[in-house]
Task: structure prediction
Amino acid sequence: MSPRTISSAPPTLVRLEPGARTPLHRQIYDSLREAIVSGRLAPGAPVPATRVLAQELRVSRNTTAAAVAQLRAEGYLEVRPRSGTFVSPLLPEAVLTAPAGGRRGGATRAHHPALARTGARIAALRPSTTSAARPFRFGVPALDAFPWELWARLTSRRLRHSAAGLAGYSGPAGYAPLRSAIAQYVRAARGVVCEPDQVIVTSGAQQGLDLVARLLVDPGDTVWFEEPGYPSARAAFRAVGAAVVPVPLDDEGLDVRAGARRARQARLVYATPSRQYPVGVTMSAARRLELLQWARRANAWVVEDDYDSEFRYVSRPLACLQGLDDSGRVLYVGTFSKTLFPGLRLGYVIVPADLVDAFTTARAVADWHSASVEQAVLADFIEGGHFARHIRRMRVLYQARRDALLAALREFVGDRIEVGDAAAGMQLLGWLPGGASDRRIAELAHAEGVEVAALSSFAVGPLPRGGLVLGFTEFAPPVLRTAVRRLAAILDRAHG
Result:
């Protein structure tokens, strides 16, 4: 069979050899990458749409989409809303190759090999950074209300009585009493079905997601991802070369049928069913069952990120998705960064029993284990009933702060923002009128000392409507009220 080519860019952009051992999506990737690196596709040049590539090459659109997604993940291509796909202005090779005679830090840069492809993918990612403590920063608990003196006493007691035993290396899966305490808590509070051996303690939820991505996803595998969704989780899957497919939401959560239309076969699904991040919708019971049924048919994994489900203000917290799973394909990710404090850097992944050995080994390869003293103190905090009491206190405090924010929005903003589901969580979403630019408003707010996040910054493609993510847990009611008045003035200026 003769090679197939397309000539969307002179002299030839893509050359395929259907009989070759290299998969077609990899041939397309290699051809496009070579055209970009060689300069035949210059920075800023348009790239044919995946549909056009598929038609000209007579292959499936999934094949061309996988190649283009890989190039986007590695930083060679970028998507401009409503315009198309273009070669990135700054290519990975341009970043990794030192200019002749260039200096950095007062010394000439060494001429060393470029990063590996995985390294280039990671370097091309732009992880979110922590902003200053300004309203309406979100995702940070009320540090002013944390029982620091109690924590200090527990730490001091551990250092006095157990320092020698905790000073050496411990098991990669985590401190055994902490794993037992976590298992007992999530069984009672979240309806998780697990044994302590299935709990893998991690350095925060992000490491848990990284372990999931590295162990369960190969380069080119398709991952369904909520659109809009958590950028740091998306980065974890892109870092391993996954083809991340955005799946839209509706009033019941992730739209399973839309996902099947976009990518019938997927290796993994990432979801936040208890409270979607950042929109806030709760996945309905019917949709949860539909997702699990699809995952069984597709032989896919499901990652449930249960990041702040403890904070529900109108009813009891909903049971988790993992508890409904009867086929051992849901991995449950939790964190103490939202319930206690971010600097603790402790989270966990609850994995199916047959994955425990693999995750334990991967945890050892990553950094062996989290700090033993902090694990022991946290275990004491949970077993002593302090964690449950702290959650109850924070639920009352956060509800009062949420109510203060809602009241201020009604008083000063009115119908210029439509508040989304505020029944739970540590932040709420304010929908903007159609046509309003959430990014422009976020920029104006930042200049005025108000920290709002544009909903569009959580999405890969354009969204039907913009919105502002507003956190409230970190700020007292008077601070929130003042900030809302400033936000109202910003909205007036933006719409004027």
